[in-house]
Amino acid sequence: MYEYEIQQARAAELLRRAAHERLAREAVRGRRAARREAARRTERAARAARETEADGDGASPGARPRTPRSARPA
Questions:
Q1: Which domain of life, per UniProt (predicted)?
Q2: pLDDT value at 58 more than 70
Q3: What pLDDT score does 60 carry?
Q4: 58 close to 52: Cβ distance less than 8 angstroms
Q5: Which residues touch 65 (CB under 8 Å, ≥6 apart)?
């Protein structure tokens, strides 16, 4: 009976470990998918910005040209 209980405990531990590894793989898969989606969104935004620049000078009408900021004393 004792060895049967040990075997039951081992089997339960293996099942728990397998479930944990499945969850970990799923989390990694989700993070990768989110990273890919963010890269796609960034690429689309960059492409849209390049197209906007190609259409005109990239500035909104009536906007002043930006001047570089100088260092301020603390």
A1: Bacteria
A2: no
A3: 60
A4: yes
A5: 59
